[in-house]
Q: What sequence folds into this?
């Protein structure tokens, strides 16, 4: 890393990216051209427009569904969990202490989700989804000031044999006035020379008169990511940085992973043939329809009417001539249009299924069931690709987000080995949904086959509630009553019932003739005995002695 410049390293690695970049540009041209512009196109220049809109529609729909599944808006995509195995080794940690820890972790989850909601992370991640679908690759940088996206023509990457990134080099055009002030001076430019300051010209970025190509070179070494920035063969001051391996800000993403390749393959590439066919047919249909709609009149050379007279004649005008001298040219291509239309319908159907366009939301508001259904749909259509996004995007994003918030003191440090984050979106969300369905089917089967009595005989209600809550990702802290709480409520209900019964007996006894003090001197003592029994049964006091009768 010290023996060459970042520009020369970028130029060397760019040759391995050429085939992927060319294919990605073809895919972008048939879907969303601005995601990856053709070579030589500068910012603000008009881009070619595809004849069909299926590519753009498919990209937008699939990107929205991926965002809904991986980063749901109305629910958290992760959960901070406690290692129960290690906590059980400490006898001082009671169930009440564990409940307080769970409550604190729940508050930390809300802090993280609030930070994501207040930032522009979702906007950048949604754009990254589009790049992944079209080009198959995207680079997300999670800095202290926010998230930044690099398209495929702005970065190169090197991966090891297991597919883990080990080196990333980016290039971008920056106005010279935004560079550090000390770098803009001639003295600073001569101080920060690297060993090889031969800056290779970049073919991926257009540099204006007052702009400069800035390269960022990040490399994994000894379990730690280190990076620096260079411009014109010189290191920018204060551009050195480092981060642990598991909390790296550099996230090179791939959509479809091919073993041995440093770059991924997009969804558009898998259906590039259908899109090209649809593009050609739509162009032919539009141009053919325009030609068929054109009306041309032929006038016989021996006709008495002049073509100029016919052209100037208005609607309902009267001119001299013979009708057989004027004929209208008709394009008889209806049969050809019909065949092309049928083929267009077939291609549209296939592409709609490929990009999940046919499924329409049935609710006005996103619910947990809709999220789970979308997750299941994506898994069925994309297979391992869906799981790869969970591993390469969601988990590293969460780890980096927690690291950033802890470094800024917005979150406390999590005890290593005791508290760990768990992803509950993506494939994990599908697993939880399947667990819920299996549990509900099991309970229904027992109830239908053996009757409701068997439910009470064989099923523990408390354990069933816990498993249902876990399957749906619901925190049961202070929501579900504990066994002690239910026992206390049952005892209070029994005491209340007994009190009402004894008070009723006391009222009936007081109305009896034998309880009249004028007729029965022992009535006061008998009534007091009933009151004492009531108080003793309900635990409301000690029995009181009956008042002595006055002599």
A:
């Amino acid at each position: 890393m010290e023996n060459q410049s970042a520009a020369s390293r970028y130029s060397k690695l760019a040759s391995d990216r050429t085939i992927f970049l060319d294919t990605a540009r073809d895919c972008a041209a048939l879907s969303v051209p601005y995601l990856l512009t053709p070579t030589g196109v500068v910012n603000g220049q008009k881009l070619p427009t595809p004849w069909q809109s299926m590519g753009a529609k498919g990209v937008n729909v699939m990107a929205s569904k991926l965002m809904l599944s991986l980063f749901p808006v109305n629910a958290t995509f992760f959960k901070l969990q406690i290692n129960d195995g290690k906590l059980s080794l400490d006898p001082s940690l009671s169930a009440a202490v564990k409940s307080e820890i769970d409550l604190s972790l729940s508050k930390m989850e809300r802090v993280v989700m609030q930070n994501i909601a207040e930032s522009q992370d979702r906007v950048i991640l949604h754009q990254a989804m589009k790049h992944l679908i079209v080009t198959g690759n995207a680079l997300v940088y999670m800095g202290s000031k926010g998230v930044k996206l690099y398209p495929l023509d702005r970065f190169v990457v090197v991966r090891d044999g297991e597919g883990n990134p080990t080196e990333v080099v980016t290039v971008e055009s920056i106005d010279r006035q935004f560079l550090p002030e000390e770098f803009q001076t001639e003295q600073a430019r001569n101080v920060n020379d690297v060993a090889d300051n031969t800056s290779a010209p970049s073919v991926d970025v257009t540099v204006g008169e007052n702009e400069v190509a800035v390269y960022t070179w990040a490399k994994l070494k000894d379990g730690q990511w280190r990076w620096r920035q260079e411009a014109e063969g010189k290191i920018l001051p204060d551009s050195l940085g480092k981060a642990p391996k598991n909390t790296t800000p550099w996230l090179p993403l791939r959509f479809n992973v091919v073993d041995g390749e440093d770059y991924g393959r997009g969804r558009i590439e898998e259906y590039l043939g259908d899109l090209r066919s649809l593009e050609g047919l739509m162009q032919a249909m539009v141009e053919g329809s325009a030609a068929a709609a054109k009306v041309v009149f032929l006038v016989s050379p021996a006709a008495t009417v002049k073509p100029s007279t016919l052209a100037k004649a208005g609607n309902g005008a009267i001119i001299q001539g013979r009708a057989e001298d004027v004929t209208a040219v008709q394009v008889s291509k209806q049969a050809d249009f019909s065949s092309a239309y049928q083929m267009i319908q077939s291609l549209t159907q296939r592409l709609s299924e490929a990009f999940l366009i046919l499924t329409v939301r049935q609710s006005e508001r996103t619910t947990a069931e809709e999220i789970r259904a979308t997750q299941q749909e994506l898994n069925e259509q994309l297979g391992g690709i869906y799981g790869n996004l969970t591993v390469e995007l969601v988990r590293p994003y969460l780890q980096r987000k927690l690291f950033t918030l802890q470094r800024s003191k917005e979150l406390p440090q999590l005890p290593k080995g005791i508290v760990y984050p768990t992803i509950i979106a993506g494939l994990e969300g599908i697993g939880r949904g399947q667990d819920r369905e299996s549990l509900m089917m099991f309970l229904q089967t027992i109830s239908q086959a053996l009757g409701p009595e068997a439910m009470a005989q064989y099923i523990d209600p408390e354990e069933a509630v816990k498993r249902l809550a876990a399957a749906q990702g619901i925190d049961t802290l202070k929501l579900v009553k504990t066994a002690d709480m239910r026992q206390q409520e049952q005892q209070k209900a029994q005491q209340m019932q007994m009190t009402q019964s004894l008070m009723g007996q006391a009222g009936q006894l007081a109305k009896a003739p034998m309880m009249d003090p004028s007729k029965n001197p022992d009535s006061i003592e008998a009534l007091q005995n009933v009151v004492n029994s009531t108080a003793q049964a309900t635990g409301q006091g000690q029995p009181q002695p009956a008042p002595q009768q006055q002599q």
The chain has 19 helices and 13 strands. The longest strand covers residues 165-175.
